[in-house]
User: Which sequence fits this backbone?
């Protein structure tokens, strides 16, 4: 399933993630995800920070939605990410019981108002944990979301603000983020990333060695929704970090210049 198809159809148990650097990139994805649901009569839960909520609201209004009307109809339920996260944490880890009560209860309440539909949820509590340096807690929270989707019918979109061209992100953050989602979107424009990675990889290694890397990636990395340019970066970062550092630096420049 393509990213566009995920945003528009969002089947039950689909769990997408948008990695972004600019808020307008995220707002475009969230707006499309929610807009498609509203037009299909599906309710939405948005758990966002105050600053990001303003951007999402503006995007929905640009798409022709009246937020007050959506909330009055029960189609839109908005919660503050900081407050919701605080309510489900127990010390430095998310509590399964509190998560079930706070988030599970919210999903069940919204779903009960619109039977025979697939609610859509967007949340960025995981990113709040990541930005605090609590990566293990963020992944635990992702797992709680996944377990909730085994008992509740809804689709979920998450988001992380990360530097895709950072070696530590490629080796420690992204593998776990990709693992816990069915539809990862590590960059706004995968085709532009693929071109930037290919040109830089060829410059750094030469065409023959670059072809060997592509072959190894094809053998070692399962064909999934992960864009191949990102799969190459992740494989290089794990197996050849010195070369990966050079490729990441060059791809960063090329990706930015190709706008």
Assistant:
């Amino acid at each position: 399933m393509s990213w566009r198809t995920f945003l528009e159809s969002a089947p039950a148990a689909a769990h997408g993630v948008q990695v972004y650097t600019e808020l307008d990139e995220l707002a475009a994805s969230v707006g499309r995800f929610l807009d498609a649901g509203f037009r299909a009569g599906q309710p939405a839960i948005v758990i966002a920070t105050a600053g990001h909520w303003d951007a999402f609201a503006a995007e929905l209004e640009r798409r022709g939605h009246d937020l007050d009307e959506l909330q009055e109809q029960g189609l839109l339920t908005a919660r503050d990410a900081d407050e919701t996260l605080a309510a489900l944490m127990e010390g430095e880890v998310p509590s399964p019981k509190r998560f079930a009560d706070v988030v599970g209860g919210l999903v069940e309440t919204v779903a009960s108002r619109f039977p025979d539909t697939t609610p859509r949820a967007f949340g960025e509590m995981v990113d709040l944990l990541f930005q605090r340096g609590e990566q293990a807690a963020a992944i635990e929270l992702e797992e709680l979301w996944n377990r909730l989707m085994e008992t509740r019918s809804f689709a979920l979109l998450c988001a992380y603000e990360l530097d895709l061209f950072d070696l530590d992100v490629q080796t420690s953050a992204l593998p776990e983020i990709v693992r816990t989602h069915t539809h990862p979107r590590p960059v706004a424009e995968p085709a532009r990333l693929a071109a930037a990675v290919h040109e830089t990889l060829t410059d750094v290694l030469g065409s023959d060695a670059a072809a060997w890397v592509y072959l190894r990636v094809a053998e070692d990395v399962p064909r999934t929704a992960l864009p191949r340019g990102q799969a190459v970066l992740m494989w290089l970062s794990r197996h050849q970090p010195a070369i990966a550092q050079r490729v990441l630096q060059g791809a960063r420049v090329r990706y930015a210049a190709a706008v």
User: Anything to note?
Assistant: The longest strand covers residues 155-161. The chain has two domains: 3-185, 190-257. DSSP finds 13 helices and eight strands in the chain. Strands lie at 15-20, 44-48, 76-80, 89-90, 93-94, 120-123, 155-161, 183-185.
